[in-house]
Amino acid sequence: MGRKVLLIEDEPNIIEAIRFLLTREAWEVETHSDGTDAVEVIRAGKPDLVILDVMLPGKSGMDVLRDLREVPELAKLPVLMLTARGQVRDREEAEKAGVSRFMTKPFSNQEVLMAVRDLHAQATQS
Amino acid sequence: MMPPPEEAGSEPPRPTQALFLERQSYRRRRLVDVARLLPLLGVLLLLVPLLWQGKGEGLETPISTAITYVFAVWALLILGAGLFGIAARRWGGDKRADTEE
Amino acid sequence: MTSVNLLILVCIGYVALLFGVAFIADRMAARGRSTWLRSPLVYTLSLSIYCTAWTFYGAVGYAARSGLEFITIYLGPTLVMVGWWWGLRKLVRIGRSQRVTSIADLISSRYGKSTFLAICVTLLAVISITPYIALQLQSITLSFEIFFAADPGSGFSAGSSVFWVAAGLAVFAILFGTRNLDVNERHHGVVTAIALEAVVKLVALLAVGIFVVWGLSGGVSQTMARIDASEIGTWQVDAGRWTTITFLAAAAFVCLPRMFQVMVVENDDERHLRTAAWAFPTYLLLMSLFVVPIAAVGLEIMPEGSNPDLFVLTLPLSQGQDGLAMLAFLGGFSSATSMVIVAAMALSTMVSNHIVMPIWLSSRGGGASQSGDVRKVVLMSRRLTIGAIMALGYFYYHLSGGGAALAAIGLIAFAGIAQILPALVGGLFWRGATRTGALAGLVTGFVLWLYTMLLPGMGNIMSEEFLALGPFGISWLRPQALFGITGLDPMVHSVMWSMILNATVFSVASLLSFPSPLERLQGAQFVNVFDHSAGPRGWTGSVAQSEDLMIMSQRILGANEAQAFFQVEARKQGADGHLPEPTPAFLERLERELSGSVGAATAHAMIGQIVGGSSVSVEDLLAVADESAQMLEYSSQLEIKSSELSRTARQLREANDKLMQISHQKDAFLDQVSHELRTPMTSIRAFSEILRDTDGLKPSEKVRYATIINNEALRLTRLLDDLLDLSVLESGQVSLDMRSGILAEVLDHAVSSALSGEAAPLQVRRLPASENVALLSDLDRLAQVFINLISNAQKYCDAFDPVLQIDVHQRDGFLVIDFIDNGSGIAADTQALVFEKFARVSNDKAGGAGLGLAVCREIMHRLGGDVRYLEGQAGGAFRVTLPSRQSSHQPSRQTTAAK
Questions:
Q1: Pick from A57, C117, C599, C890: most CB atoms within 10 A?
Q2: Average pLDDT, stretch C635-647?
Q3: Strand C893-895 to strand C735-742: parallel, antiparallel, or no bridges (unpaired)?
Q4: Is the distance from CB of C856 to CB of C785 less than 8 angstroms?
Q5: Per-residue pLDDT for C391 more than 80?
Q6: Chain B interface, best mutation among C82, C84, C272, by max B CB count within 10 A
Q7: Interchain touch A–B (≥3 Cβ pairs closer than 8 Å)
Q8: What is the total count of domains within chain A?
């Protein structure tokens, strides 16, 4: 059974790192690097999990998340959010917008993997 | 330094007046007093003939006396005014005494 | 015997002489050679219009009837003149400082520029002066009659001759009095002619007197004896009449419009008063000196029933002294003409300024002051007024039957005009005097005068029965015995009641009423004229249009005068043009200038029309309310303080806004810095962990990941460098190392640094000739800017075959260096953003932190130049400007101090 993750991030080196990590965990990794049409891409790609950067060109990750939760079929989709700004109010805002997990860059690889596993486990159990 | 003589009245307000004026200004003030009294004196002197109204024969004042008296008073007033005019001219440009207290 | 033809010839010749004198005097005044015209002597002589034909003929008649009582007519003015320090000095000062044109103007001006009050005073003056003019007509006619009667060849008719005399005097007055408009320009010609006439009448009367005393009576003592022996030989004077007439003469001397005209309006110099104070009483004394002798000798010599009013003329004639008689006739003629000229001038000024102009203004509606030639209207109305006044005198002469004694007519006029006195004296010395009070007093006095003196004196208007029993039989309303007080001389009775009630009503009404602000202001200015001859009267000129004022002023003052006046005012304000700002001070002066032509009330109204209604400013109200400079001072301080407060509040608000903005900017900046630092760090941490934790990585992978880590570390370093640079530059603590150099060398260095190590360096095109420019700048910093721009082109130029063109040229004292590539450039909407911190033109990862251009801009500002995006080029283009004179500056290490 193929597990698919959609990584929305605009920094190439970070994309490469996460792809490397998740591929080894048998994830199928798709990437997208623009906020504008992110929701459509998620809908079309039907990923099991989304990893979302906050500072995206075109549209902020926060807005993408909010719009995403508006879509009924995506309301429960696990979303892991990454931010480089790392201020407390960002975390609060993200939680209000319905984030599943919020992480601050730079992260440890282990943390990311754990988070992905957890989120996936929760999603499959329910 | 004295301010240049200018149109009287446009002079700057005087500082509070000194209690004692110098002798010259003091004389000036008294002279102004005389000038003010002059018409009053004239009125009094010209009322005097009204008291002469002697009635009855022989008591009447001849008109020549009245003429002499009235013209003498008149000349006196003119003299007084003339003297004051001359004195006032001597003050020249100094207009300080010109202002009314 | 003198023939009538000769008499007429002499009259015409004399009038021609007067015209000649007036003409020459005007010419001399115009050329500025008029020092003697302005001498105190001429001023004194001009005052002698007080001595009219009434004096010249009537005094002798008066003396023949009532003895020495006639002298009160001259003692009154003497007392006024001698006491000039009390009143006249103030009157003249006010007249000059307020540019007053007539007694009506003065009263109206004092009581808040009231038009209505001016009209009342004018009417009162016209009605009072009418008998007086009739008196002059009568005396001239009578004197003619004497000569005509002696010349059987002429067909004499008193009726027609009085008409011709009136007409002639009217023409005379019009020709003399209405040649120029501005009353305050002073009629030098008229005044000089009057001075000449004064000499003529004095000489004539003295000549007759000397002839009588030494020619007929044989010396002084014998004359005195003859006087004592005559009908009037004893001292019999009614005390009431003596004091009343003295008072009346004093009052009339000040209030008569013609006296006001020569004494106040035509006054050139206040100091003339102190000469006139003794010289004019002397003149009066000389005029009176021979009156009693002439009367006594006349009574003795002349046949029973001769008119004593004409002794001056008939005595010499009866003695065969034709020449002396002719001189006496000229003296009487002079007395009459000079009085009529000045009285007509003064009255016509009053009528045109206070009656015709207001009516004309209101009939022309709102824009009246700017349309039509006001000068023509004014002059025409004055001429017509003179004609009308003469006509009135003529009719009065007819109505009164021409029979009454000259003295009686004169006293009627005096009593009428004296009704102005309470308002005048009150206005000059009492600040509490109000317009209502003045009006009420004036009307009361006027009505009483009319009822108790003028109408009973006109003979056929009030019946005997009316006089004896009162109106409707109410005895206490009898015109000559009011409230049942009988036994008084009718003249004393009338003057007593009218003056007492006038003054009482004036005082009471003043006390009860409340003055308007303008009244109080004017009141303060009049009463305290010596404290502030030039005080604020306050136009708020903000709405006034200088141009409108100019148009109006030209109509009134004449184009040249108005332009000159405006120009002087503009220069005073330091303006270049012809139009001054309508400041309150300027409007004040303009109003006074205009009031010289049309009167205070009219001038005020005209400026009011243009300035816009409200005539009193808030400052005036304050000044009046507290009548002290301190209050003004205080209020202006308050005003300053309140504006200071609001300014401070605004500054605080602005500072707060700025702080808020800075706070937001700081948050945004910290977010950006955080992001820019964490992003490379994320990659570094991720790949270093991969390298550490992952077994069995291929060597190529290891190399790749290590390279990424290295690149990201470099990116971090660059970022930190830029941040540090920027903070130093922005805080102003940067030290500039100013050195001389050549632009070409700086560019060489920059190009090689920027492109070294690039796999595919872009092609750089330069023009070495143009780059040979000497510089004085911080060359390292400048190179840093160039490197940044060249690297940007290298990174972002998307052309297939990238080329960078570097152009150097001089423009407007600046050295301009353009960097133009052949890529697609920057979209218009982002051009403004590229110099902002962390702005990135594209999403392509190029390793820049987005601070480069911000740093460049800071550097260029520090160097006195700029860098900006150049629009309208084929590709991306940046323009660097440097002050090109930098090379001529002293080399120095500039340190901009910290703020």
A1: C599
A2: 76
A3: antiparallel
A4: yes
A5: yes
A6: C82
A7: no
A8: 1
Q: How does C69-98 read in b/e, with b if 16+ C-beta sit within 10 Å?
A: bbbbbbbbbbbbbbbbbbbbbbbbbbbbbb
Torsion of CA A42, A47, A49, A55, to 10 degrees: -30
Question: How far is CA C110 from each of CA C11, C282, C723, rounded to the nearest angstrom?
Answer: 42, 33, 79
Contacts of C683 in chain A (CB under 8 A): 11, 13-14, 17
Q: What is the pLDDT of residues A48-104, one digit of tens each?
A: 999 998 888 888 888 999 988 888 888 888 999 988 876 777 888 888 888 999 988
- Domain range holding A35? 3-125
Q: For chain B, which chains pass the contact test of at least 3 CB pairs under 8 Å?
A: C
Cross-chain residue pair A13–C685, CB shorter than 8 Å: no
User: Which chain C residue shows the shortest CA-CA distance from A88?
Assistant: C671
Q: Two tokens at B90?
A: 């001597």
- How far apart (Å, rounded) are the C-alpha atoms in residues A45 and A47? 6
* Tokens read off for C105: 């103007």
* Residue numbers in C near A89 (CB within 8 A): none
Token pair 């003939």 is found at B49
Q: How far is C709 from chain A (nearest CA, A)?
A: 9
Angle, helix C115-150 to helix C311-318, in steps of 10 degrees: 10
Verify cis geometry, omega within 30 degrees of 0, for the bond prior to C358: no
Chains A and C: 3 or more CB pairs within 8 Å of each other: yes
Instruction: Test C278 with B85 for CB contact under 8 angstroms.
Output: yes
Per DSSP, the three-state class of C192 is: helix
**Any residues with CB less than 8 A from the CB of A124 and at least 6 apart, and which?**
none
Q: Which residue has the higher pLDDT, C706 or B53?
A: C706
List Cα–Cα distances, C878 to B22, C642, C853, in angstroms. 84, 50, 10
Chain centroid offset of residue C302 CA: 61
Query: What's the one-letter identity of residue C311?
Result: F
A27, two tokens: 């994830």
